[in-house]
Amino acid sequence: MTDPIAALTARMEALEKRAQAAEDYRDLVNLQGAYGYFVDKGLWDKAAELFAREGTLEIAGRGVYVGRERVREYLHRLPPYGYGVIYNHMQLQPVLHIDSEKGTAKGRWRTLMMVGALGKEGRWGEATYENRYIREDGKWRIASLHGIVNFYTEYDEGWHRGGVPLLRSVDGAQPDRPQSFEYEAYPEPVIAPFHYDEV
């Protein structure tokens, strides 16, 4: 006959692991969502603080920026938020794989973008994020953010007329490493590498 105390202890340990996994999922969704909201409003310092100390950022084939301060430097080179500016980056469709015991996780997201400046340009965009996360000093942080742009199009022309070529550099902020792989956005086909084979 099974020891009821041992059985109860095992059940409590299993429930604790499930509770921790649920909390980690919530925290990671909030972390990625916070990144999107901060980027929306050009709050570059707040966005940078979501990265691990040695975290990396790679967006649109512009190379890899290594370390929180380099991420901050890159972000501060982006257009400032203000009158007549839209820079929405909605974080959608998460697929998360979390190792709560190790304090690591991987996530795939989709971002839908509305980018524009009054009287200048207006664009729709969409990208896939393949990210890694780490628990650092008791909090989840972005260990690697990799945004693979699927398309940018002029809002008034739509995607049926083609896309806007990717901007391959940011003035004044040279990357620390080259981009992970060569690609061009729509109308060229691109599939962001998956961190998983099945769910």
From TrEMBL:
<protein>
    <submittedName>
        <fullName>Nuclear transport factor 2 family protein</fullName>
    </submittedName>
</protein>
<keyword id="KW-0175">Coiled coil</keyword>
<feature type="coiled-coil region">
    <location>
        <begin position="5"/>
        <end position="32"/>
    </location>
</feature>
<dbReference type="Pfam" id="PF13577">
    <property type="entry name" value="SnoaL_4"/>
</dbReference>
<feature type="domain" description="SnoaL-like">
    <location>
        <begin position="21"/>
        <end position="145"/>
    </location>
</feature>
<dbReference type="InterPro" id="IPR037401">
    <property type="entry name" value="SnoaL-like"/>
</dbReference>
<dbReference type="InterPro" id="IPR032710">
    <property type="entry name" value="NTF2-like_dom_sf"/>
</dbReference>
